[in-house]
Amino acid sequence: MALMTPAQAQILPTTDILLVLAVDASGSVNQTRFELQRKGYADAFRNPQVLNAIRGGSTGSIAVTMVQWTGYTMQVHAVPWTLIKDAASADAFANAIEAAPRQLFGGGTSISGAIDHAMLLLPGAPYRGLKRVIDISGDGSNNRGRDVREARDEAVRAGVIINGLPIVSLEYDLDKYYFNNVIGEPGSFIVPADSYENFAQAVVRKLVLEIAMN
């Protein structure tokens, strides 16, 4: 049996996108709101529009992971990297989202911390993405840790795209804040949700756009 060289051992499967979903679990997100976020993401990955977008990519697959975040040093890797390429793998990821317990309940709102944590996860992914994306969802502006624009700019210089899903029910101009301070890299965008109840529809729109723009 032939042995792999170290260089061959480092070759990773290629997928269209490495996507980090960073979900707000700060104090403003009560359990009902958190459950609406979780259900919104799970339902989105079961949506035929999202699966069709994935199948339409050059590799027909994406790799996704989920993080819960609050304060600057408070992040939890809630759902591990998962390759989604068909209905079965999409449903398995949705099930994993639903099964992941909430592990954070306060500590401020550090979007910069969420970006920095996501940047640590991307190099350790077991796949190589043609595009790397951090997706931040939340209902408040950055109030902990370093300036969110510093974290954003470092990620952009590393070739990572940051998209946003601001929930504007508590801060009416949060969409403008995300547009000016959070998203970055050419082609980045926001899809606002005007309430937690409409979060699921916004997630579907965002995922289809994200994948189709690949």
In words, what does this structure look like?
This protein has 214 residues and is of the alpha/beta class. The protein has a single domain, classed as 3-Layer(aba) Sandwich (Rossmann fold), CATH 3.40.50.410. The protein contains eight helices and five strands; from the N terminus they run αβααββααβαβαα. The protein has helices at 6-9, 31-45, 48-55, 87-99, 111-121, 148-157, 174-182, 199-212, and strands spanning 14-24, 62-69, 75-84, 128-138, 161-166. It has a five-stranded mixed β-sheet with strand order 3-2-1-4-5, sandwiched between helices. Helix 3 (48-55) packs parallel to helix 8 (199-212). The longest helix has 15 residues, at 31-45. The chain starts with 5 loop residues before the first helix and ends with a helix. The model is unreliable at 1-9 (pLDDT under 50).
How helical, in percent, are the residues? 25-40%
Instruction: Provide the spatial order of strands within the biggest beta sheet.
Output: 3-2-1-4-5
Can you tell me the number of structural domains? 1
Instruction: Specify the number of helices.
Output: 8
| Shape verdict | globular
Major β-sheet annotation: 5 strands, mixed
Topology-level CATH name: Rossmann fold
What fraction strand?
15-25%
| CATH uppermost class | Alpha Beta
Structural class: alpha/beta
Write the element-wise H/E pattern from the N-terminal end onward: HEHHEEHHEHEHH
The CATH architecture would be 3-Layer(aba) Sandwich
C-alpha end-to-end distance: 39 Å
CATH superfamily: von Willebrand factor, type A domain
Number of strands: 5
Rg measurement, Å: 17 Å
* Mean pLDDT across all amino acids: 93
Spans of at least 5 consecutive residues whose pLDDT stays below 50 are 1-9
